[in-house]
Structures are given as structure tokens and as C-alpha cells.
Design a protein that fits this description.
This protein is of the alpha+beta class. Helices cover 41% and strands 34% of the residues.
Length: 166
């Protein structure tokens, strides 16, 4: 305890404190460092937002293609005529193994591709700019264009074979 008490007055006498110039310099350096770090973080978050939009668009394209391909496998009749130009919507129908009839339709409503199966509608893609459905023999073609980030458009075309299509 004696050593500690004896050492304190010596330290206290030698410390002068901090001058105003030193304090202002430290605050300025801290402010510059904070603004550089804040700018970097803001830029990283902005870039991530664009990447997320592109990933979401790609996911929606794949999701819509999967639904359509699955439905075409079962299809027995389709509203698009063989060899006709692409149409903005399509209705597919079939009868399952239990003899129950099913109908599914695809169409764009307010920028969303809707799939209506036996009267129940779900959204399978968002930010849709155009959709086209056409038929060549037993193959149904599905072309979808969606709005990606920064004004770009991403498209996907899927040909699905309907073995039971008449």
C-alpha cells in the first residue's frame, strides 16, 4: 500500500492533461474515419439490395418453370392451338387416375404470373413484364420475361413435353 501511495503523487505531478488542439485533432480524425466506414457500409448494403433483387427474379423464373413443367406432364388438352402464335395465357386440363378432372391456368395479372389450379390461385412469379405460351405438336413452350434490377429484363424459355396431350 505504501508503494502505491508513494507513486501516485509523482504520476499526478507529471501529467499535464490534453490541450484543445490535441482534442480537436482527435475528434477530426475520428469523424473522418467514421464517415469513410459509413460510406463503405452504405455502399455494401446498396450492392446487396441489387443482388437480392436479381436472385429473387431468377428464383421466380425457375419456380414458374417448375410449376408449368409439372402441369404439362399431366395435360391432356390445352387452349393454345398447335402452330399458332404465342398467347398471353393458357389453360391446361386433365383427368387423374381416380377419374377426377383438373384444370390449371396461367396468366399475368398486375405484373404477377398467376397459376390457378382447380379454382385456387397462387403467384408463381413477380415483376413479370410478359408471358407467352405456344404449342408445337405435344410440346408446350413457356416464355417468361421479368424485370430485374437496374432496368434489366431477364427471360426464360421452357419447352415441356406433354405425352398425353391430344
Amino acid at each position: 500500500m505504501r508503494v502505491l501511495k508513494a507513486g501516485l503523487p509523482a504520476v499526478h505531478k507529471s501529467s499535464r492533461g490534453v490541450t484543445l488542439v490535441e482534442m480537436l485533432l482527435a475528434v477530426a480524425i475520428l469523424g473522418i474515419t467514421t464517415s469513410i466506414m459509413g460510406s463503405a457500409i452504405f455502399q455494401a448494403l446498396s450492392t446487396e439490395r441489387y443482388w437480392f433483387k436479381d436472385i429473387s427474379v431468377t428464383k421466380d423464373l425457375r419456380h414458374a418453370g417448375s410449376w408449368f413443367a409439372r402441369d404439362v406432364i399431366n395435360t391432356q388438352t390445352a387452349t393454345v392451338a398447335d402452330g399458332a402464335p404465342a398467347e398471353a395465357s393458357v389453360t391446361l386440363s386433365w383427368t387423374d387416375t381416380d377419374g377426377a378432372p383438373h384444370t390449371v391456368s396461367y396468366g399475368v395479372v398486375a405484373g404477377e404470373l398467376k397459376r390457378t389450379y382447380d379454382g385456387q390461385a397462387i403467384t408463381v412469379a413477380r415483376d413479370v413484364s410478359s408471358a407467352g405460351f405456344s404449342r408445337t405438336g405435344k410440346t408446350l413452350r413457356f416464355a417468361l420475361a421479368v424485370n430485374a434490377s437496374r432496368g434489366a429484363t431477364e427471360t426464360k424459355t421452357l419447352d415441356a413435353y406433354g405425352g398425353m396431350l391430344q
